[in-house]
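2024-03-11 09:14:02 INFO receiving multi-entity request
2024-03-11 09:14:02 INFO entity count = two
2024-03-11 09:14:03 INFO echoing inputs for audit
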Amino acid sequence: MSTAGFNSQNGTGTGQTYANGPSQNPVALQQLPGVSYGMTNQPPYNPVQAKAPAPPGPGLYPAGLYQPIPPVSSYQPGPPPTSYPSSAGQPLLPRPPMGGHPSHTPPQSASPSPGPRMPMPPAQATPPPPAVSSSSYYPNPQQPMTPAWQYNTPTPPLGPATSISAPPMGPVANHVNSAATIAGPSLPSSASYSSAAPLPPPPNMSYSTTQPLGPGMPPTSLHGYTQPGVAPPPMNPMAPHTYQGQSNRPAYGPPPTGPTPVGPPPTMKPTPLPTGPPVANATPPPPKADAQCGGVVNSTLSPTEPDNQEGDIECPGAVAGNGPQASNSYNHLDNKMAGPTQPGPPGRHLGHYPSLPPGYQNTSVPHATPPIHPAMQAATQPYTQAPQPYQQPPGGLGPAQLSPSLAAMSLQSSTPEALRVVNLLQERNLLPPAPVPAPTPCLTQDLQKLNCSPEVFRSTLTSIPQTQSLLNKAKMPLGLLLHPFKDLSQLPVVTSSTIVRCRFCRTYINPFVSFLDQRRWKCNLCYRVNDVPEEFMYNPVSRSYGEPHKRPEVQNATIEFIAPSEYMLRPPQPAVYLFVLDVSHNAVETGYLNVFCQSLLDNINSLPGDSRTKVGFITFDSTIHFYNLQEGLSQPQMLIVSDIEDIFLPTPDSLLVNLNESKELVQDLLKSLPNLFEKTMETQSALGSALQAAFKLLSPTGGRMSVFQTQLPNLGVGALQSREDPNQRASAKDIQHLAPATDFYKKLALDCSSQQVAVDLFLLSAQYCDLASLGCISRYSAGSVYYYPSYHHQHNPAQVERFQKDLKRYLTRKIGFEAVMRIRCTKGLSIHTFHGNFFVRSTDLLSLPNVNPDAGFAVQMSIEENLDDMQVVSFQAALLYTSSKGERRIRVHTLCLPVVNSLSDIFAGADVQAITGLLACMAVDRSVTASLSDARDAMTNAAIDSLMSYRQSVLTIQQPGLLVPACLRLFPLYILALLKQKAFRTGTSTRLDDRVFAMLQLKYQPLAYAMLMIHPALYRVDDLTDEGALNINERTIPQPRLLQLSVEKLSREGAFLMDAGIVMYLWIGRNCHSNFLTQVLGVPNYAAVPDNLYLLPELDTAESQRTRAFIGWLRDQRPFFPSLHIIRDESQLKASFMQNMIEDRTESALSYYEFLLHLQQQISK
Amino acid sequence: MAFTFAAFCYMLALLLTAALIFFAIWHIIAFDELKTDYKNPIDQCNTLNPTVEKVKKIKRVKIALKLVLPEYLIHFFFCVMFFCAAEWLTLCLNLPLLAYHVWRYMSRPVMSCPGLYDPTTIMNADILAYCQKEGWCKLAFYLLSFFYYLYGYTFVSFSLIFSPFLFSLF
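2024-03-11 09:21:47 INFO inference complete, emitting structure
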């Protein structure tokens, strides 16, 4: 049998075996950053929302709905809800189908079978009782089983206790999670409700879930709202809305959540931030609740059966349906808000903003959503039951207070929010207070719970258009952004003699397949039916038999398999590290050798590897030096090869040596190396030959080659010439020389790639080094590039510190050898282009000689065949690699997204950050193949086209102004930021290497880090307080607000921290508070701030601790080390600080407002 | 005197065009294989265990991609022949393709060896589609020109056979 041991660690550790079923869930949760999960939950909402809003048409909402809405305002009070339900409810029912969709597939067959999914379908079927619906919801979640719980976890706890009381919140809760958790408690509540709602009765089966919605009068009200939108399946969206509402209106949130919120809120906050742990904590509780709930639910559900309604409604989403409805209602609210105030078209909405602002903030916090959900659910229920719930809300105030951010999150999730019309020309303050969360796909809760974390797998459009022509109409790029080898805190690892895959398309079994019965499953990519192997029937986690749908493979969207020997072409290679060091005069001058040798000495025992690990060294200037480190020698032996035209290996056997056996020799070498070349006068660099030698050395085994280069290679093969004319940097009309000058490095990289050798390039140079040509060596061999401009051991201490920290991370991080990554997608979709560092071996296969945890990939997709009959599509990225311990492993990520057929839904599901990231990758390609100006035009046009498409196809009311859906409100800002990014800016003096490096980074940085490069974060740090602070590991981390990148936000009295990814600037205002100067910087006054300060003194004051905690926390969130520069008005670096003020006008670039006017002009042409 | 230089050119062009048609077909097949590679589930399973057949296929594809330069040279060669034979109409018909070839080769990616296709970009869907389309268009062009040369050959030969005869009448 297969043993399924789940390792908590990524690959390395042996996981804990999942003894308990429930435990798994927690694990899963943990794996995914807690946050991400939370996110996912929300996503479902979005879809719904989106759908809902779209159908109705903006116009509609405002008019009829709004008025009703007024009641909404009353919502908080309670009464309004009731009204909603009644009227809306019926209409809504029809919509429910939407929600149902997702579940549909599995339903029939499933229903009989236990499969979690199965239940869902039934739910859909059941239209009936609204009251039930709430309960039904639960059932659904339950069915999803533990997985959902995991996600939900946070909510669950809440759910039970609070859920009932919270009913009002309930709607929000709609999220799957809540359902699960709530289920138990809710049921009771539902019962009470039931009185109101007829259906409650026999929550029979899965039906109940869906039905509840339908039947529930309240639901109807919701539906009414939703209807306009279309029956958005995603319940979640609704929830978000509710939140907003809550946020806006205290009464709301608080009442429902009241009890629950309390618990969750805290967790929420933590989660959003960085860590998953909080989530994990939350998760555990839910499962239990679920279980309980499940029972209840089922019973309740069955009764509901009101299929009739369902049929109309399409219960599918019963659960979801509720959610959506709720969301709709929320939307309405929003609309109302806007509407009432402004009769006018969407544009008016602006007016809303004032009231809404809080909502925005809310958006920022995705994580929060989960907690919210419970509340939401409650809320939804309340609506249906109207009166009672409302009352509750007041009590619920707590939640609102808990986190505006949370509320914000909810907003995003809700479709309505996503589609809310924003007039950018009037609405100035669009930045959320905290980092922008990823939108949640509009899926049913159960699916969403299982979905892959957005940190690992993200799509530019969380709702996939049905046809290519629809996609073309939307004018937005469709693509995926992956971070497949990300360090995960918890990752289930499965050891099994047979890895279950589709016989036809070789897809790995994943949470989105459907089980036809216990013996057969249907692939979700090719839709063909496969048998379930006998071995798969046993569940090692629960130690039960006959429940294939509960196996970890089917419960986790991210999972790792230990691969059997069929997955090996040759015995797994050992970890092999070869260091190729430049020792020319220039290199010795920079003093990097000392740092390198010291770092390697310090970390030599933590290099990933096992007893077979090998290391080797090559140094070069105009000749190539090899080092014989054979065991038994008394000291390292240097061998010099001066024939660089025809390179050969002097002693092939003893240059790469076993690290354990020759450790002392290696240490000797590292100690003597810096002195060895101290007096060298050799200025030439034969990099090409050194690389060839290194390739020869590594090609029998494969491995990693780390190249340190400090100047332009000017000797032998691969010699380059300086192509940059410094005088043309700022004035050139177009930037030349972005493409490589020679294909030597590319060809060598391809050779390396075929021999499983990856080349990582460290470029430390003050001079032009032609990174465009050199970079190819890493680009096509899946290496990474590090660039330290003007590196000098004395003159540039900040760079030295960065180099040290980066090296430490580089040497000790996880590594995968001889890897390939294949991306599969549902039939009909195909991969158009890949972006990142790799070699494309086949249309869907990337060859990655090494894979590291800091590499990101982007993929452009196209739709080849219409996705007519599909509710959802899936993407699966499978990364096969050899771990440093010599184990062959497969890491599989699966992402599931809904398919939609209306433009408004597509817009509602747009993920503005992912779109920006993908556009940046495309623009880099364009700059190289065409020209930079072409790329710049293309980016501007991308913004114009998509907004024009939105205006023409989605907006029903035309009015002046630059109208965008709320989910794209940051799009023009990001595009402008891209245009002003180092990679693409013109008119400003930018060194060619800096530019090329920025381009490389945009392509291979994971999205989260790339976004910081594009749009840096600005915080005011002189008045940090503990209010709203995070608490991590007993450290208090203040959370200042994100500020717009505009000089108007700066003040001379303050100190501002700009976080631009690999660099941070701390700008000290001239009249900065002396308190800050003395307590944080340790200087008496402004004039005493040293010029080259790059470290904060460790003072024992509260202010200093807060500041350092905050900066340390920011640094901890990324794998590389951002250097900190403390600058004053007179500092040289002030210019680079100011260049990041992208909302301001510069000599050569438009200000944000001007850019908006330009867009508007183009759009209204 | 029935066989002039022009007739010889047409005959040669006829034979060479047949070869070009063959090249074009090979070109189309090569790109089709590149594109559909992943759609073949059997290959998919075998990506890690390349079979002999797979290796053969890869070689075939590589050969096909290397036929670019011979193709260009052949086409250039008989364009020169037509120029020498003063077959202006035929030359004009071929000039666009000649110009395209020159442009295509001038704008090839940076490469140190002859060749047109860069393995790092060839898998891009746009480039694949473009190359496929190019293959089909060329195939069509060569087929048409094949029959045109056939016609030209008979026409030239025919007029050559009869013109002396006609002259002799006077």
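2024-03-11 09:21:48 INFO post-check: The CA atoms of residues 712 and 769 of chain A lie 4 Å apart.
2024-03-11 09:21:48 INFO post-check: The longest strand of chain A covers residues 888-900.
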